[in-house]
Amino acid sequence: MADTTRLSAAARNGGCNGIVDLLDGAGSTIKIYTGTQAVDPDTAIGAQVLLATLTFATPAYGAASAGVATAGAIASDVSADATGTATWFRKATSGGTAHIDGSVGTSGASMNLNTVAIVAGATVAITSDTFTIPQGA
Q1: Per-residue pLDDT tens over the stretch 98-123
Q2: In 3D, which of 77, 72, 75, 78 has the Cα closest to residue 58?
Q3: DSSP state of 45
Q4: How far apart are CA 3 and CA 136, in angstroms?
Q5: pLDDT digits over 40-87, tens only?
Q6: Nearest-CA neighbor of 88 among 46, 59, 128?
Q7: Other beta carbons within 10 Å of 65
Q8: Is the dihedral of CA 5, 98, 105, 126 positive or negative?
Q9: Comparing C-alpha atoms, which of 70, 72, 41, 66 is closest to residue 54?
Q10: Which of 62, 86, 91, 107 is at 20 to 30 A from 29, Cα to Cα?
């Protein structure tokens, strides 16, 4: 039999808000890396190279609607840490507790940038960001 799991709007919004609220403290970040994406946010960074660190506003996201939370302003990294190809990101609290990882690309990725070629010293900006809890299978 097919999986026909469906979530109510309240469940989607509650789940979405519960996750993004973990990033609401001042100084939460999006860090962009090269290399292979970690298995999950609980896995420590290994040989991956940090390319850029961007900082969320406080709170990081507004209240979810239809299972989608939209980030507030995200401060650019005005001087990228290294040169390399962006392949994945990690969203974490100011204390470094990671909660969300995802792929980076120019289309079809968890996070789409206008270019994945990051140059040390260059500005890296994210103009918008959303987090979504899907309706169901």
Answers
A1: 999 999 999 999 999 999 999 999 99
A2: 72
A3: P
A4: 9
A5: 999 999 999 999 999 999 999 999 999 999 999 999 999 999 999 999
A6: 46
A7: 12
A8: positive
A9: 72
A10: 107
Neighbour count for residue 58 (Cβ, 10 Å)? 14
SS3 115: coil
Q: How confident is the model at residue 4 (pLDDT cuts 50, 70, 90)?
A: confident
The Cα 110–Cα 134 span in angstroms is 14
DSSP state of 41: T
Helices (H) and strands (E) in the chain, counts: 1, 10
Q: Which two tokens stand for residue 95?
A: 């204390």
Whole-model pTM above 0.90? yes
Task: Round to whole Å and give the CA distance between 50 and 89.
Answer: 9
Residue with tokens 């401060």: 75
Q: Which amino acid is at 88?
A: W
Encoded tokens for 107 = 């289309």
